[in-house]
Design a protein that fits this description.
The complex is a heterodimer of chains A (123) and B (230). Chain A is an all-alpha fold and 123 residues long. Helices cover 57% and strands 0% of the residues of chain A. The N and C termini of chain A lie far apart (62 Å). Chain B has 230 residues and is an all-alpha fold. The chains are: A mainly alpha (123), B mainly alpha (230). At the A-B interface, helix 1, helix 2 and helix 3 of A face helix 1, helix 3 and helix 6 of B.
């Protein structure tokens, strides 16, 4: 029996919550599309990703029931994103430390795009 | 996800079943079974996050490598279609969670309706993607060495082809997930129509719902990064 023994799950408020969440998600979509039309420079990426994360959190917490359920599910979900963040961080550290992003032993292809200073071959 | 609803003729309990027919014997209680199923699904979803996450990181690095080409290439994407698809998927997430709620509250007819709506939204999403892809094909905006678009600002650059490699790979992989979702949702729909789900047992609906929400989640990130960033 899928009895939620700890929290007697009150389903009555649920439909309203879901409807409100959908509306909020749609509003955020409108905002994100509108913001993309305005030039905030490098702020555009930050704004778009922030709104996307808010939307993702709404879907995860409310539609995917993380808010009401056993914490282990949230631990797993957050861990997934945490490790992704770790992966991204190391890739960025690597990329930022390079003169150009080409591998050092790549044969130069057709002209203009290659960087002028060719770094010394990797050890 | 137990699928047994038939009376056990070879019943080790001897005669009447002492517990819910969906209760599998290696679990102490139905609640433990439900919790375990959920954890299993969440673990799978975490692997999906890493799968698409890896592709996103690759995309980000290549964006840094070819910033001007990526900006120019992304102007070929049709924002209207992307936004429409976003709305369709958000709506389908709502119909999905309403379906789960219907199962939890023994409303079989509503469950069926919501599942059908979710499947229809998924099909609409794929239909729009088909239009987008054929437009790209028509303009020669194809991945890798199939790229043959004329009139790019920066000549001889791999940046455009790289953008479309990522575009097709990521939206394509996402599309395959949508297709798989349609298949699974159809299976759950058939079971729902047979009356297999109730407040006592709705685990499959719940778990498929989680998968579907993740597919929506991935698109929530795909849409701004491909269609909106400049």
């Amino acid at each position: 029996m899928n009895t939620h023994t700890e929290h007697a799950h009150d389903h009555r408020g649920a439909a309203k919550t879901y409807a409100r969440t959908l509306i909020l998600l749609l509003v955020l979509t409108i905002i994100t599309v509108a913001a993309a039309g305005v030039d905030f420079g490098s702020g555009n990426v930050v704004i778009a990703l922030t709104i996307a994360t808010v939307k993702a959190s709404l879907v995860a917490l409310i539609f995917m029931h993380l808010r009401h359920e056993k914490p282990m599910n949230s631990v797993i979900a957050v861990a997934g994103f945490l490790f992704l963040g770790l992966f991204l961080m190391f890739c960025l550290i690597d990329a930022e430390s390079r003169v150009n992003l080409q591998p050092a032993n790549l044969k130069p292809s057709a002209p203009p795009v290659a960087a002028p200073a060719h770094p010394s071959p990797a050890p | 996800m137990s699928s047994s609803t038939v009376v056990h003729s070879h019943d080790p309990h001897g005669g009447g079943h002492g517990h819910d027919p969906h209760h599998q014997h290696h679990f102490a209680t139905m609640e433990q079974q439900f919790d375990t199923s959920k954890i299993g699904m969440w673990l799978f979803l975490a692997t999906e996050v890493l799968l698409f996450g890896g592709l996103f990181v690759g995309f980000g690095l290549m964006q840094a490598r070819y910033p001007r080409e990526f900006v120019e290439a992304h102007h070929h994407l049709q924002r209207g279609f992307g936004a429409f698809n976003t709305v369709v998927l958000l709506f389908s997430s709502w119909t999905m969670v309403m379906g789960v709620l219907s199962a939890q509250t023994n409303q079989k007819k509503k469950l069926v309706v919501y599942l059908v709506l979710t499947i229809l939204c998924a099909c609409m999403f794929l239909g729009v993607k088909y239009f987008e892809y054929s437009h790209k094909y028509h303009d020669g905006l194809l991945p890798g060495h199939y790229y043959h678009h004329e009139g790019d600002e920066i000549p001889n650059s791999h940046g455009y082809a790289t953008f479309f490699s990522f575009y097709f790979m990521m939206t394509g992989l996402h599309g395959i997930h949508i297709l798989a979702g349609i298949a699974i949702l159809t299976w759950i729909l058939i079971r729902a129509m047979k009356g297999e789900f109730s407040s006592a047992y709705y685990t499959p609906v719940d778990l498929v719902g989680l998968y579907w929400h993740l597919v929506d989640l991935i698109w929530i990130y795909l849409f701004p990064l491909f269609y909106l960033i400049s």
